[in-house]
Amino acid sequence: MTEQKGSYDIFSKIRRDMGPLGRWADVAEGYFVFPKLEGEIGPRMKFQGKEVIVWSVNNYLGLANHPEVRKVDAEAAAKWGLAYPMGSRLMSGATELHDRLEQALADFVNKPAAALVNFGYQGMVSAIDALLSRRDVVIYDSESHACIVDGVRLHQGRRFAFEHNNIDALERHLQNAQKIVEKTGGGILVITEGVFGMRGDQGDLRGIVELKKKYDFRLLVDDAHGFGTLGERGAGAGEAQGVQAQVDIYFSTFAKSMASIGAFFAGDADVMKYLKYNMRSQVFAKSLPMPIVEGNLKRLEMLRTQPGHKERLWQNVRMLQGGLREVGFDLGATNSCVTPVYLQGTIPEAMALVRDLRENHQIFCSIVVYPVVPKGMMILRLIPTAVHTQADIETTIKAFVAVKDKLAAGVYKQYAAAHQS
User: Fold this and answer.
1) 14 with 341: CB under 8 angstroms?
2) Checking CA distances to 247, which of 7, 27, 28, 331 falls within 20 to 30 Å?
3) Residues 283, 327: Cα–Cα separation, whole Å
4) With contact defined as beta carbons under 8 Å apart, do 188 and 178 qualify?
């Protein structure tokens, strides 16, 4: 590209500033970010040629390589291929199996109807965009997932973020929102999560629903981590807290408990119909391939009829979280399967600690640093599954004790300094 005199090359800002995570790309890529786990999905996989215990795959119920799932996936791929149906669902990609999956999902989460979407992230962004007009007000939890934040950014009306799980703060925003919509003639949408993916704490759905007695608003809940893991039947955080009927739009993804691709919304039939006709990410995107649809029907059947997967998951959750707390680790307020281990340290220290875990203890877990969490903090985030073993858990706890002692002794600070000089 020839640069013209006086022109501005948009790439110049990229080359000056790769962003808070991108600035570490040269030293982190392929190891700390964009790592390549190899082998069949499970509690033990290979990383750079070595077997590691894996705590960073959202395979909650262990269905990714379950023989029944693999059989249906393979048979469906052989029967349909990966292309059918072609085109968007609105135009030429509709099938009876898509309809059947939607109704089965709606029945499972106790809603009249459901709407499939190809991916959770794009689906949530598109649904928020479709639901809101500039006359409306949206209020969302300040620690909402990026898909919610990015959807809200598209809103051309007023928007407010309330302090995480703070019902008093939400009520103050509702009072302001009520005054605004009285003038604009719009409505109010409140968005929160069933389970917050970093902290692991459940959204206070009971507290939010209680406010419906005083204010007129609709509630959208992103329950990606709660679906399949919480509630008596595994129908999510709304079921667990006894307020599913008051959740106006329920959302979850297949990428976690169902170990698959796709997502769905569930709610009143007319609202679901509106979303199917107005979510641009679906109107203009190819329909979910038939093997994915048929495979998801099988996974949902297993969620309904095989509760042992969830029971084994929670046995492992209690063993892991109880064991870590017993030896002095801070897990915050998690009351879900998500297991965050809070530590103090710089990004270079965090990188040294994780390298030690992977190279010397064969433990692979995700690390969360600034800008996701405040500077000086790190989170080692573990996702227990139904297929982890007691030996996996005991080995991991011992390894965490060892690296915590080294962190406190300044070993990783010395390592980071030596490798930066």
Assistant:
1) no
2) 331
3) 52
4) yes
